[in-house]
Amino acid sequence: MNIMFSPTNGTAEISRAALREVLSQMQHPFGAGDAVGVKLHWGELGNHSYLPPVYAREIVKWLHDLGARPFIFDTTVLYSGGRRRAEDSLRTAAEHGYTREFLGCDVVIADGLDGREVVDIPCDLKHFKTVQVASVIDSAQGFVIFSHFKGHLGTGFGGAIKNISMGFASRAQKQRMHADASPVLLKRRCTRCRICVDVCPTGAAQMSGDEYPEYDLETCIGCAQCIAMCPVMALKVFFSSEADVFQEKVVETAAAVWKRISGRTVLVNALIKISADCDCLPGEQEIIAPDVGFVGGYHPVDIDAESIRRMGEEPLTRTNPHIPWQRQFSYAGEIGF
Ligand code: SF4
Ligand code: SF4
Question: Which fold has domain 4-175+243-334?
C-alpha cells in the first residue's frame, strides 16, 4: 500500500499547504499534453459543507505545472435540485466558485448536456454484468479522483469508492444502484409539511389533503431526496433487499470503473469539513469529526480504508449506526477490487 498523508490544523492556509504536500509526493502517470479529468463534487445548491474551490485550484495548478491539460468534471444526478440537468449543475458549480476564471480550466458535465454521453463497460459480477458510466472514462487520458471524505446516509461514508461509483455513473446506473432503497415514514415525527412531496422527482411521494404522505414504490427510484430533505427526519431508508446489497452495488460499479482507469489515475481524499452526510444535500450539515488532513494514494479501497483509520470509525458508526459500510471493504476483497 502506497499512501501519502499530510495533516492540517483546520485553517484554510494549512489545509492548502497539506494538499500541496500530498500532491508533491505523488508518483503520477500523466504526460505532457494529457487531458486529465479532476473528478469532484461541487455541492448541491444550498449545501454549506462542500469543498471550496481553492483546493481544486491547487490540483489544477499542479497538473498545469506537469504540462497536463486539466478539466474539472461531475455527472448529472437523479434527484431534483441544482444538479439534475447539466445546465443547472454548471450554474450551481459557478455559484460555488467552480468557474473557469477561478480554476484556470474548463468545468464540464461528463455525461453530456443531456446525460446521454455514456458507455457500457463489462464487469460480470453478482449484481451487474455491465455498468453504465460517463463517456469521459474513455475520452480523458488520466484522472485525479478528488473526494470530500464524510458520512453518508446510504453508504455510511463517502470517499473515493463512492466518488468513482456514483460519481462516474450515468443516471440509469445511479438508479440501478438505488433500486432497492425506498422511504419509510415514522408517522409520530411527520408534521405533514409536504416537502417530501415537493422534492420527489418522480411523483412517487404523494399527499392528499391533510393525510400523511404515501410513497408509491412502483415509481420510486430510490433517490433518497425525500429522506434527505425531511426537516424532522421522519423518513428512514428501507432496503427491500439486504442493506448489504446497496453497498455491494456501489462497490461493483466502482470496481468496473477502476478496472478501466487504474494505471492512469491518482486519488486524493480531503478529510476536512467532515459532515454527517453528502454534499448532495442542501442546507447545513452537522460536522462529525475535526479536520484531519489530506490522504493521497493509488487505489480507492486503500485510500478510503486509510481515511477511516485516520479519522476513526466512531463518527461513522455514531452517525449511521445501521449502515453496514464495512461490507464495502469485505466485498471489494471478495471480488478482487
Ligand atoms: S418532509 Fe417529512 S415531515 Fe414533511 S411531510 Fe414529508 S415525511 Fe412528513
Ligand atoms: S419517494 Fe422515492 S423517488 Fe421520490 S424522493 Fe423519495 S426516494 Fe426519491
Answer: Rossmann fold (3.40.50)
